[in-house]
Amino acid sequence: LRTFKRIALPALALMLSGCIHSRNDEVLVTPYTKIDFPSGGEAREFVISSNFLWTIEISDTWITINPLKGYGDKNIIVTASPNTDLAPRQASFFIAGEETRREITITQAGEAPALSIDATQKTVTAGGDTLSVGVTTNVELNVAIEKDWITFVETKTIATKRYIFNIAPNITLEQRSGRIEFSQKNGSLSAMLTITQNGENPNFEIETNLVEVAALGGEVKFTVVSNIDWDAASETSWIHITGTRLMEPHDCIFTADANPRVEPRQGSITVFAPDHPELGETT
What we know:
This protein has one helix spanning about 1-25; strands at about 30, 35, 45-50, 55, 65, 70, 75-80, 90-95, 100-110, 115, 120-125, 130-135, 140-145, 150-155, 160-165, 175-185, 190-195, 205, 220-225, 230-235, 240-245, 250-255, 270, 280. It has about 280 residues and is mostly beta strands. A five-stranded mixed beta sheet has the order 2-9-8-4-6, with no helix packed on it. Strands 1-3-7-5 form a four-stranded antiparallel beta sheet, with no helix packed on it. A four-stranded antiparallel beta sheet has the order 10-12-15-14, with no helix packed on it.
């Protein structure tokens, strides 16, 4: 028994020592402990050399690795999907054997701040309109409107965001312009849209071309709709103009003398624009 112990115990110790040594002899060679990717994403290929069967452990979904297990020399492809956020991101995967566990860190840059609009100049008719502008950006925006005749309506998201604005009618003859600034919140990016709106064409018209007056005469009026100065005159002796040369919708006021005769009579008033003879006269 003493002889057996002298032989068996050292042998058992040697055997156990060999098993531990074998596990510690797992060899893994990889060129990376950290891989950096640009924001647009791409694939990286490298070789893992090992003397044991390994598997890859990963939980982040924006990284894909192929293959996920192997032995010996193996080409590994690591692919990062595009990062559409401004902030960078980081993850890790592990190459694991029975005793070995090697961590590889993945970092990916965030997108650079970007802001662009599909036009820097838009023209609107005098009657007003609803206008949209396409905005491509990856940052939060402030929208500053320069003129009160432009009002923001809504934002619609399609491929790019479309910002909708209402343009009020321009009831003047003069062309006008206003600017809309799209600027990054808490940043320096900005884009400017200039809206030009045409003025109305000069015009005037009367709402009726026949007015009846009582035999006793008196004050009478009819409406002239205009965006220019207008005047009225009459060659009829019993008609007297009292309100003339006005702009926008306004009454043309006149008085008619009493008619001393039994028969009806007829006279005329001519409305015209002194500064725009090309428009002619209306009776």
